[in-house]
Amino acid sequence: MTILRSAMALALAAALGACANLTAEAPLFSVADQIGPAPLAEGVWIALGEDCPERNLSRRRFPQQCSPIEIDRLPDGAWRVRYRVDLALGLTREERERAEADAGRIMALIIVPAVERQSADAFAPLYIAESTPQSVEDRVSYFVIIPQGTLPAESILLLSGIGCADALRDGPIASVTEQYAERVDETGAVHRELSGCVASSQAAVREAARRAVIENLATLIDARYARVARR
């Protein structure tokens, strides 16, 4: 994984390969589905936590644990996320060189309300971000954004992927195909385990997102991201 993608994994929880998370065979949302005013303030954002306390919000450069990224809009209205290697402190020379070489790559997102019926002039309480694959190695993935405070939000809680187990705990979801794999334990017993799930409709993604948020309410407070002070 490149430094750029590694930083985005920290900042936007994009590293989904190790978990059974919701995906789709192809993007299900488009710019036209981004109903309502922009939910996020554009600018530089950092991941807050024990290794990146709030005092960093007033800095011009940040410890690498803050994973500084820039969020803005593309000409077509989609959202763009870029790792700001020039703002990250503490990277090794190798890490910085790899990140600079990869600086041209971006993460493109479609951010839509997590509710089906949304007024064109109102904000939603919950949003879904769909990542658009940038290469054959990438896959469609989903994040859930919970804005905090006044919108456009300058602080959010981010659910790092929609876990299949979380989404399906209360039963199947229409237009979500469950995937299973067999595992043989040390005794030779075969276990059938949920290995993934694939959505084929917008309604399915929205329902899965709402269920996943409920399942993760206790830990969401630890996944906070905020925009730094304007320069």
State mean pLDDT (0 to 100 scale).
88
Give the proportion of residues in helices: 10-25%
Low-confidence stretches: 1-7, 13-18
Largest sheet, strands/sense/barrel: 8 strands, antiparallel, barrel
Query: In what order do the strands lie side by side in the largest sheet?
Result: 2-4-5-7-8-9-10-13
Q: What is the rounded distance between the termini?
A: 31 Å
Count structural domains.
1
Structural class: alpha+beta
Q: Roughly how many Å is the radius of gyration?
A: 18 Å
Q: Kindly estimate the percentage of residues that lie in beta strands according to DSSP.
A: 25-35%
Query: How many beta strands in the DSSP annotation?
Result: 13
Instruction: Write down the overall geometry.
Output: globular
Describe the protein in words:
The chain is of the alpha+beta class and 231 residues long. The protein has one domain (3-227). It has 4 helices and 13 strands. The chain has helices at residues 3-12, 93-101, 164-168, 202-215, and strands spanning 22-24, 43-48, 62-63, 69-73, 79-83, 88-89, 107-113, 127-132, 140-148, 155-159, 176-184, 190-199, 224-227. An 8-stranded antiparallel barrel has the order 2-4-5-7-8-9-10-13. The protein has a two-stranded parallel sheet with strand order 3-6. The radius of gyration is 18 Å and the shape is globular. The two termini are 31 Å apart.
